[in-house]
Amino acid sequence: MTNDLNDRLRAIEEREALLAEAEQIARMGTWTWHVADDSVYWSDELYRILGYDKAVDLPSVEGFFGAIHPEDLPALQAESAKMAQTGKSVARVVRIVRPSGEIRVIRLTSASVQGADGAPVRMVGSILDLTDTLAQQQELAKSHERLNEAQRLANVGSWVWHVRTGKIRWSDQMFRICGRDPHTYTPTVDAFINLLHSEDKARVTDAIQSSLSDSFAEIECTIVLDNGAERSIHITSKLVKSDDSGPLVLHGTMHDITDRKELEGQLRQSQKIEALGMLAGGIAHDLNNYLQIIQGNLAVLDLCLSCVQPQVARAREDITASLELCSSLTKGLVAYSRQQELAPELVDLHTIVTSSLHLVAKLLGAHIETKFDLAAAHSHVLVDRNQLQQVIVNLAINARDAMDGSGQLSVSTGNLGGRDNGYVELRVTDTGQGMSQHVAGRAFDPFFTTKPVGHGTGLGLSTVYGIVERSGGSITVESTLDVGSTFIIQLPLQQPPQPETVQEPIIEAAPALAFGKKILIAEDERMVRRMAKILLQRAGFSVVEAADGREALDIVLGPGGDAIGLVLSDVTMPNLDGPTLAVELARQGRSLPFVLMTGYTNQAHLISDVTSVRAVLQKPFSNDQLVGCIRQVISELPVT
């Protein structure tokens, strides 16, 4: 009998120990209140949750309610009283305050056991410590928020597709990229396919089927938003298989690469422009050589003709004017390709506009009428002549495209403010299609264009903006749809130059200064070399020719080389270029004064360190410039 009782007691103790362990693991304490004798039982875990000491704090109703947070106590007491009357159970989340002052969050569940008369006999309940769980949930929510923010910043969304159930879950950024409302849009495979550009639907459908057998897959495609805007996206996916190797879950990312694609396109375009700039420099060099031949031989013809008929004189004037325009265009071509820095000079804006009339008319075509009103009383500005002409040309091209080949282009000038601190205003107006406020606001952005692919780079107006800003001016645009646009440029006014005393051309001046040495012409272009030789010989100089730098070096270092007193050399030549020729002669003890000729505009770095270079002639140069430069260099040489 005693053994049986002991076994039962041990079994009860074991069950109580297991219950206590379970309560501790679950962080749940239990309590019982016998109403009749007001006795209360608290489990060990309830003591731990409340922070009470079992050896000191006796379990009581007052002790339990005393642990409830003051802000939560009135509502809990009211519900407990109601429970005692009705017998309905209570479930409520409240806060408790431990004796240490620590606040914990608990879920209180209680029920009333009533007797035959309906009066409460016993009340039982439990409290579940939610503090750590809530903290984890809050941290999880913050982590989820940080993930959403990271995805938003990176423009990357994530998705999960439960293949067997067909359910798909999107992250917030997925909805943003696709322009969908997460409250009304249910993501499915078919719904996503409907978002795609028509050209991508079949390809993406095939890729989805393939991804069910591949462990990793990726594809680029385009989605179309409700407003018609297109977004380029890059999708990656990874397959998680079940034990039977069948598809289970497909998850991955969607990256909005629209901006990256635009930047890549801009980079490719800028590389094309850079290549075009290099080509422009080469074209300008060759064209300057040919212009030099024409201009030099024109001077030779002038020297040979003792009597010039009026028709011939007019023809010569036309040729000279064309030469000046071609020279200006080659400089503008190189300046446009960013191979030349601004070279500001004091110019008359009216002169620049009128000199551009012929070129602008050719650009516009026969069906666009041009109207000019140059009413500014003062129009001298400090600008780069070639780049200002580029501004006018670019605006004319922009106007032509806006008018679709038919309309009127008006160019006018006017003065603002006083002469000392005022501005000259240049207006270029077209009767084209005009621009909306949004388009006009972006008109000067690099690479921004509303023209179809292949019909514009988006650099014309941004180039105009850059030239005007670097010249100290400003440019704005006024535009109305279906009416036209007006580009308004304001440049600071400058005082006009003082009249200069007209001097006779150098070619008609006194004979050349006595120069007991020969001039060596090193030029690989035969016609340029021959033209320069004739002009210098007519000016009284003795000339020797060399077809390149290597031949020039042999002449100076060979027999009779001591007779050479000055070298007129092209900068760029095969075998040995001009600057290298000068350095090599100096190294071998024959340092001669050099005058360099060049058709490029960006070769200062090749010449700056060559001390023997006394002057540089930019092709095409006139006879007066050539002879005057040679005489000036000779006059500055030390007398021997």
Q: Let me know the largest β-sheet.
A: 5 strands, antiparallel
The beta-strand count equals 22
Coarse morphology: elongated
* Strand arrangement across the biggest beta sheet: 2-1-5-4-3
Distance between the termini: 145 Å
Task: Determine the fraction of residues in helical runs and give it as a percent range.
Answer: 40-55%
**How many distinct helices?**
20
The assigned structural class equals alpha+beta
Could you report the average pLDDT, rounded to the nearest whole number? 79
Task: Return residue spans where pLDDT drops below 50 for at least 5 consecutive residues.
Answer: 452-457, 502-512
- Indicate the radius of gyration in whole angstroms: 46 Å
Approximate strand percentage? 15-25%
Describe the structure.
The radius of gyration is 46 Å and the shape is elongated. The strands form 5 sheets. It has a 5-stranded antiparallel beta sheet with strand order 2-1-5-4-3. A 5-stranded antiparallel beta sheet has the order 7-6-10-9-8, sandwiched between helices. A 5-stranded mixed beta sheet has the order 12-14-15-17-16, with helices on one face. The chain is 43% helix and 25% strand. The longest helix is centred in the middle third of the chain and has 47 residues, at 258-304. The chain has 640 residues and is α+β, with helices and mostly antiparallel strands.
Short description:
This protein is of the alpha+beta class. Helices cover 43% and strands 25% of the residues. It has a five-stranded antiparallel sheet with strand order 2-1-5-4-3.
